Each structure stands twice: as C-alpha cells, then as structure tokens.
Amino acid sequence: MPALARACRDEVEAGFDYPSGDVRRLRRVEPYRLVASDRRWYLLAYDLDRDDWRSFRVDRITEVAARTWRFHPRPAPDAATYVQEGVASRVYPHRARFLVHAPAETVRAQIPASAAVVQQRDNGRCEVLSGGAELDFVLVHVLLLGHSFEVLDPPELVTRCHILAQRLLTAGKTMSPPPAKDS
Questions:
Q1: Residue 31 C-alpha from the chain's centroid
Q2: pLDDT (tens digit, 9 = 90+) per residue, 91-129?
Q3: pLDDT tens digits for 10-64?
Q4: Distance CA 54, CA 1 (A)
Q5: Cα separation of 129 and 94, whole Å?
Q6: CB neighbours of 100 closer than 8 A, spacing ≥ 6?
Q7: Residues 6+ apart with CB under 8 A from 55
Q8: HEC string of the chain?
Q9: Are strands 23-37 and 126-132 parallel, antiparallel or unpaired?
C-alpha cells in the first residue's frame, strides 16, 4: 500500500495486477485516493484502459509498480462516496433507492457501510441506496429496519411490495393473532 499512497501523492501513473474472474490482468491507472470502508482499503483511480473511474480493493492488488509518468488530476467524484456506492450497490445486478422515515444517523447505525449508502434528507428522513442479487432481499432488509419507508427506484419494486404484502397478509390469516398484552 505504501507504493499506492506515494503514487497518489506524487500524481504518477501506477500499474498492478488485479483479478478479473479467474485471470489476473494488468491495470494501468492514475491513482487518486485511498479510502477505508468497512474494514477494507480501496483505491479510487482513473483506469486508463477502461477510460473511466474505478475502485479497487487494495488487498486484491499485487505487483504494484509506480511509473515515472506524471498526470494532471482529472475532475474526480468524491472518493469516499464513490467507493461506498460501489461496495454497497454498483457491484450488484440490482439496485434500489428508498426514502426511510428515520434520521440518517439512526439508519447508519443499523446498516453496515458495505451494505448501503445512507444520505440525510429533510425532516428526519434519509435516502438509502443498496444493491443485491435479488431485489426482494434488498426490500426485506429495508423492511426489517423497522421504519416507515417509500420505494424511490426502481418502479418494478413497488409491484414486488404489493405481492409480498399480500403474501404476508395471507400467511397471517392462518393463525389467530396472540392476545394483546395489557400495558
């Protein structure tokens, strides 16, 4: 990691091996920042071969070589936000956004940074961006937070809410509810 930190500081290109499926590929980058997120380090860099910003898990990087070619930093996304969005949602086939009726600090304490991006909105509400292999799992995780919420995106998730709500109502009809406790 020291070689990557120096390359970020000195604004010099870097090369390294990085896994792509079962193959390790040489990556040529303009390193921008090292970011810690949920007990891991990530490198935010401009990938010269893919012509786009990328984040790389530092523990997967091998054979680091800082180059002598200097570069002028490009306008970059906020490093911490970019990395967290990548870890929490961009790597998954499905992404969802929710408006949760609870303060961001409360929701952040309930969700690890690797599972969602939580941004404060207005009036004690926050926006949650998360991803998963299946949208139903993302929906259930937000439901289990215990706060009221609204689906912002994608639209088809609203239909899934109705289907799952109907299943829960049907499942609840098979037994009588327990008697209410006196407070």
A1: 20
A2: 678 889 999 999 999 999 998 877 888 899 998 999 999
A3: 999 999 999 887 888 899 999 999 998 767 898 999 999 999 999 898 999 999 9
A4: 17
A5: 11
A6: 107, 125, 126, 127, 128, 142, 145, 147, 148, 149
A7: 35, 42, 43, 44, 45, 82, 83, 86, 87
A8: CHHHHHHHHHCEEEEEEEEECCEEEEEEEEEEEEEEECCEEEEEEEECCCCEEEEEEHHHCEEEEEEEEECCCCCCCCHHHHHHHHHHHHCCCEEEEEEECCCHHHHHHHCCCCCEEEEECCCCCEEEEEEECCHHHHHHHHHCCCCCEEEEECCHHHHHHHHHHHHHHHHHCCCCCCCCCCC
A9: unpaired
Q: How far is the C-alpha of 34 from the C-alpha of 4, rounded, in Å?
A: 8
CA distance 30 to 15: 9
Cβ neighbours of residue 145 closer than 8 Å, sequence gap 6 or more: 100, 102, 107, 110, 111
Per residue in 130-169, pLDDT (tens digit) is 888 888 988 999 999 999 999 999 999 999 999 999 998 8
State the amino acid at position 127 in one-letter form. E
Token readout for 89 is: 């949602």
